Amino acid sequence: AVLADNGHPVTLWSRSRQTAEEINQQKTNRRYLKDVTLPEGIDATDDIAKALDDTHLVLVVVPSQAVRETVRKASPHIPDQALLVHAAKGFERSTLKRISEVLEEESPSHQGRIAVLSGPSHAEEVIQRSPTTVVVASQEEKSAKAAQSFLNNQSFRVYTHSDVVGVEVGGSLKNIIALGAGLSDGLGFGDNAKAALITRGLAEMARLGMAMGAEPITFAGLSGVGDLVVTCTSRHSRNWRAGNLLSRGHSLDEILQQMGMVVEGVKTTQAAHDLSNRYGVEMPIASELYEVLFEGKDPRQAVEDLMGRGETNELNEMIRGSLS
Ligand SMILES: NC(=O)C1=CN([C@@H]2O[C@H](COP(=O)(O)OP(=O)(O)OC[C@H]3O[C@@H](n4cnc5c(N)ncnc54)[C@H](O)[C@@H]3O)[C@@H](O)[C@H]2O)C=CC1
Ligand SMILES: O=C(CO)COP(=O)(O)O
């Protein structure tokens, strides 16, 4: 919709012919955006070669675990000069790779024309043209600027960025903290608890990010604190809602089924567990959440354990917290 608003002809590829037909005939996609009429200028197809014919910009917006297979299918049809931009917030679970690394592997001829789009941007609000700010990061400034000029408009303000690692790590890890925020709210804890989760969550996001090669300041930006705040506080967040349902005793399987959309924070919690071990970085909140989600730990006990950790200095722990 943002691209169509900017006057670009857009072709959406869907694996479902039925969805493509609904979009073309009724200008709706009711399963995902119930009361929305899509703007003119959007065509849909289930033919991936047709969708990519003569395109200048490819936006990859499937869930993280589906990116590799989708780009593998798309890659032979993507024109050489096209920009490849993704908006997925997660790591590939089986390899722990960032999504731009997956794109580089699956479409090596686009190296240098790959970018990530991230930031506080719930689709439900973007489609209402409610003011939204995001970042687009690429190793090549030229590519970030080109993606910016495709996407930027009066209600969707796009900043460029060069720290691909920081932007991807921030956008992924914030979902873990949002699950925790939903859980905390559901357990009846207050605003102090939520502020603590956001702030201490940001510290562990930045800690892992720095170990992976990110610039610390990136976490103070839109793809860090910006997306963290919106996901921990918005009624639109699937991650917050999943955490909230967990506090009411629903099982993880039940929740994922009920949601019917991706809850990236679940697989990201597993990935963060492995990454924190790989890099020797302490991530107390992610680690407690891992035990709640996958080892049946009582969430109240998890909160007690977080509150009962050894006495420490805020700044030291923010920067240096390590497993050793
Ligand atoms: N929904 C939002 O407001 C935002 C989502 N994101 C990120 O974008 C990514 C996608 O999120 P959503 O669109 O919300 O997820 P979703 O679960 O609502 O929908 C994803 C779309 O991908 C399709 N899909 C799933 N698996 C597929 C596969 N194997 N092959 C082809 N198509 C497949 C689904 O049919 C659906 O149309 C996630 O990484 C999410 O974190 C980023 C910013 C905002
Ligand atoms: O990333 C998002 C908003 O920026 C979407 O968050 P949820 O996946 O929790 O809905």
From TrEMBL:
Chief location bin: cytoplasm
Instruction: State its role.
Output: Catalyzes the reduction of the glycolytic intermediate dihydroxyacetone phosphate (DHAP) to sn-glycerol 3-phosphate (G3P), the key precursor for phospholipid synthesis.
Q: Which UniProt keywords apply?
A: Cytoplasm, Lipid biosynthesis, Lipid metabolism, NAD, NADP, Nucleotide-binding, Oxidoreductase, Phospholipid biosynthesis, Phospholipid metabolism, Signal
Q: What class of enzyme is it?
A: oxidoreductase
What's its catalytic activity? sn-glycerol 3-phosphate + NAD(+) = dihydroxyacetone phosphate + NADH + H(+); sn-glycerol 3-phosphate + NADP(+) = dihydroxyacetone phosphate + NADPH + H(+)
Per UniProt, sn-glycerol 3-phosphate binds at K89, G119, S121, K174, D227, S237, R238, N239
Enzyme nomenclature, EC number: 1.1.1.94
Q: What protein family does this chain belong to?
A: Belongs to the NAD-dependent glycerol-3-phosphate dehydrogenase family.
Superkingdom assignment: Bacteria
Annotated compartments: Cytoplasm
- The residues covered by the Glycerol-3-phosphate dehydrogenase NAD-dependent N-terminal domain are 1-143
- Active-site residues, record numbering mapped to chain: K174
- All copies of the Glycerol-3-phosphate dehydrogenase NAD-dependent C-terminal domain together span 163-304
Q: Which GO terms describe its molecular function?
A: glycerol-3-phosphate dehydrogenase [NAD(P)+] activity
Pathway, according to UniProt?
Answer: Membrane lipid metabolism; glycerophospholipid metabolism
Query: This chain belongs to which protein, by name?
Result: Glycerol-3-phosphate dehydrogenase [NAD(P)+]
Instruction: State where NADPH binds.
Output: R15, Y32, K89, A123, R238, V262, E264
